[in-house]
Protein 1
Amino acid sequence: MENKFLVSASPHITDKESIPKIMYGVVLSLIPAIVGSVYFFGVRAGWLIVLAVVTAVATEALLQFFMKKPITVGDGSAIVTGILLAFNIPAEVPWWIPVVGSAFAIAIGKIPFGGLGYNPMNPALLGRAFLLASWPTKMTIFTTAPRDGTLSGINAASITDFGLETITQATPLNVFKTQRAVLETSAKAEVAISQLYDSYGNLFWGKVGGCIGETSVFLLLIGAIYLIYKRYIGLRIPLSYIGTVALLSWLFGGTKGLATGDPIFHILSGGLILGAFYMATDMVTSPVTSRGRIYFGVGCGVLTVAIRLVGGYPEGVSYSILLMNLSVPLLDRYTRPKTFGKVKEK
């Protein structure tokens, strides 16, 4: 009896990773994009991120205190929620927008379901959806041009040369959607779209308008590579998501008929990279099975393209992920692998 042993049920798996370590690893991966948001949109973008993070942490701590539950803000999940919520808002929104969004994300999207590990939908995206439904004009009007760039991503010289001054206050996806709608009646629409397709460099580096954390594909990919290296996320969801968007936008997103779209433009535009690597891969709200993750990514891609091309919004990443979050229980149920060694009953 002198030697005491720890007795537990199988499987006996040990790992050095922990929830706080993973969450702070995600925070670390987001630092390049945070720095980029401040560089492109100014110090105000940094303050919006700070407000969102502080509100998320404070809301979680206060709710758990009043509910007499263990305070778990030290695990870092509320910090991640605050950063991602801030990444999904424009730089010119009032200071209270990230405060309300983060409070809603935690108080409605996370704590009522039991906290981390029990929320059915991504809290940050739920907060963003609430803000978009409540204050659509503040969430969809962009006036802050990025440093060394333009809101549309089209070079200033091209805007002047082709007389495209009317689109200077629109983001790339806004320009694409509006000009595609008037293509048959506007001679400049085809020019505008062709100029968008020539703006790959601006889209990749982040010299375009949009929400403060989604514009720089380069900086987001730096963080994504770190997450993949640490094995915090896998590639099934991002690749199936991005691949579906690429295929469908090529088939149906063109201006000259079937299979004339530009998939690279749709991959680099909007919040696709942010959503595919940072929010669709959320461990809590994504499937646990391999096939389920592929179906999840494909579903996100189908919904994103549908909203972008025929929906009322120019962007569909947030709503597509939220809707697919609700399908996760079914995906896990119907994609469960066969139990090893189980004999099929006759």
Note: The chain has a mean pLDDT of 90.
Protein 2
Amino acid sequence: MLEGLKRVSVDSASAGDIVVISGISDVRIGDTLSDIAHPQSLPMIEIAEPTLSMHMLVNTSPFAGLSGKYVTSRNLRERLEKELETNVGLKVEDTDSTDTFKISGQGELHLSILLEKMRREGYEMAVSKAQVIEKMIDGELCEPYEEVILSVPEVYQSVVLKDMNARYGEMVDVSEREGYVTSVYVVATRALLGYRQSFINQTKGEGIFIRKYKGYQPKLNVAFERTAGVMISNDNGVAMTYALFNLQDRGTLFIGAQTKIYEGMIIGITAKDMDMVVNPTKNKKLTSIRSTGADEAMRLTTPKALTLEFALEFIDDDELVEITPDAIRLRKKYLKEHERKSAYKMTRNTVEQD
């Protein structure tokens, strides 16, 4: 048994004690250890089923293996199997590809904590967009819903209310105290994907956002899609100030000058609802003619910092988050432009046939 920082040997322990048991290698959370002569099992602990899933892939970008120590599918499998021993809410499944695993958990935070732990331990991987886990209940297709508690300054209440209405949230309670408005909503988990960053921006960081699993309800016949396009690099190399200066007026950049990039990497968000293929490695042509005055200084705006939480919320179905110990990058699943066009045509043909 643990007493402070020391371990002491005891013959018995009671509820609330933290003990370490040796000699049983395959014991799992929820199992009952009893006397062989009087075997009596306790009821199994009920663990909430996963509501969100994503695919974890071996990192296949041109920068794979530059910073991580564990990069193979065997490394990922061993780490996920080890995580299953203590992470009772996690579910790991094999897929048709030996380099891809399907991981399911209880929300974005649950999965992002696992990914951050693996990243800090030296693992490299790529993950796809999170998808909610749907179920057929009494012959009707259902999806997970959550109870959301939002506490915001009164001045931001109208903006938050408008956004929750756009996500088809149902308000069940509202109260006001000391200049703060606290609202309780029931919202589909699918509608909340990507909302955390939006909420932080809307409330200038002054709001409180709490979410809790509510249960399964009939699926909303509504599609929640990203409204912004992305800038996609069409070349390998180093981003140049001249190219980024001309691109920053078209949207928000994720990278700064002298950042190493590769073809198919996402370097920013466009101001319009369309993807744009760009060349961030383009530099100013040198000539023998010089102006009488100095050239105008090219000042770049500070790039948007890419966090793991934002990246997981932002990506679309045809994109991946590349996670390494020293960087978070966004990329397209297909790095070559002609491969993306072929994949889009195949997807469109499949939809038309259905």
Note: Helices lie at 73-84, 108-120, 157-166, 189-192, 195-202, 241-247, 308-314, 337-353.
Protein 3
Amino acid sequence: MGVLAVLAAERKLVDAALDRLLPPSDAWPCRLHEAMRYAVFGGGKRVRPILARLTCRAAGGDPETILEAACALELIHTYSLVHDDLPALDNDTLRRGRSTVHVAYGEALAILVGDALLSEAFRVLGTYPGGDELAPRRVEACRLVAVAVGSSGMVGGQVEDLEATGQPPDSARLERIHRAKTGALLAASVELGAVLTGVDTPTRERFTRFGQSLGLLFQIADDILDVTGTASSLGKSPGKDAAAGKLTYPAVYGLPAARRKLSRLAAELRAEAVALEGRGGTLAAFVEYIASRDR
């Protein structure tokens, strides 16, 4: 099965699990739950939960055992998008080809949707996979994800991204922002798959380093797409980073150099994926998908 078919099958599994985990839209408070589902079921690629499951398989585990826990990553990612789109931050009106949550439901409810999704994610991480014998792994999963999305990770990266807007090009600051704002949760997705599989510490560290580099690759590709993509292909407003004076790889290095960086990093990651999983594994194909995606 090719990587696109694998990803399509994985998305179906993740979407079905998310549907089971989220409160139904007719449960009190109905408007909040309706808006949460609007945010989650807007056509996302499900990169983070799929990545956790692929890592679990690569580490010798059964990805079905971590399906629900992996979905927590998507809830956190969706919360971050809902808040990023708010007028106080990126002020975007289009996400995945639809109105952003604050446009569709109002700014106050959008803030609460993000709050609820983040809380729900940690409920899921603290519950799955079940069983007393797996309690230590659940605790470590909660800890590593909390660090990844907190003040020293995703939220901290968002803060520095705001502070760097309109400032002179700075390559060190750019990489720091990308590794925190986007890369930290992607790295945690890889690490989560390894932790819930129960790998030893050296193996976990190898997967973690792989995840950190993959997060950087993802954001470089995103930066390039903001320059080269269209609203129809991206499902969101292109060109906003440049218009806002954001610190991006094309802004700092230029588009040709950014593409070369993407190509070099992708080659390194494919080699590392083969070392982790063996030839013919899905992780290397997933790297290629991230590097060559058009949305």
Note: Residues 245 and 264 are 26 Å apart (CA to CA).
Protein 4
Amino acid sequence: MSRYFISGAQRAGAFLLLAALAGCVQLPTDPRLIDVDRLRNAIVTDHAEYVRALVKAGALSPDQRIPAPAYMEGTPLITIAARAASLRVLGYLLSAGANVNARTPAHETALMLASFFRDADDPDDPRSYARHEMAARLLLQAGASLENDPGSYTPLAYAAYQGHNRIVRLLIERGARVNGDAEDGWSHANTPLMMAAMQGNRNTVLVLLRAGADARIRVIGGHTAREYAARYNHTHLVRVLSCAESLGPGEATAKRCG
């Protein structure tokens, strides 16, 4: 869940990249001639100048899809930039008219990926996802959707799973539906509260309960948030969520159950 790695062979090509940016090497004007590995690594390492040069040369569209780890069939450039929190590339693609709601083959938006990934492995250190929070803000300013296709995970669900509480609060403040598209106590996909519960993210659970998350919702064919907490041995959350089930959604629930 970290950034994509750059191989030694790709580092060896850095001279050509710099020469191209300096105008010493003719950039391709045919998309079929693009070095996809070099382009992908330019995005991940936030070399916006290289991406901009290819677009201006006519070799690249802001909405181009290229292979990437986990998406070898091709994924939009903006999703690669969001996953890596490459802020300069992301800003350039948005200014060039890239579709802010373009999806990966797994139907993930750039905002979902910015909400999920982080730079470091310490989930308790807000600095580990500070750049991804900035990426999320950029995407929201550009009109990124807070939701997803019916029955799919949402940016809020992804942020809740990772315990990215600043992003969780940001998405809720912007109007993200805290219960997703659940209706009549049922959901086709895990709600943000379920995602936080299965990971044992107590603070995230309380943030969501304060925002009106309904602990009584059950995913079709599956569990409630409390049952997920029990299944994954997060006993510290079982009591909280049992209390939330009995009280129902409301701002006072988090205070009384937390």
Note: The chain is about 50% helix and 5% strand.
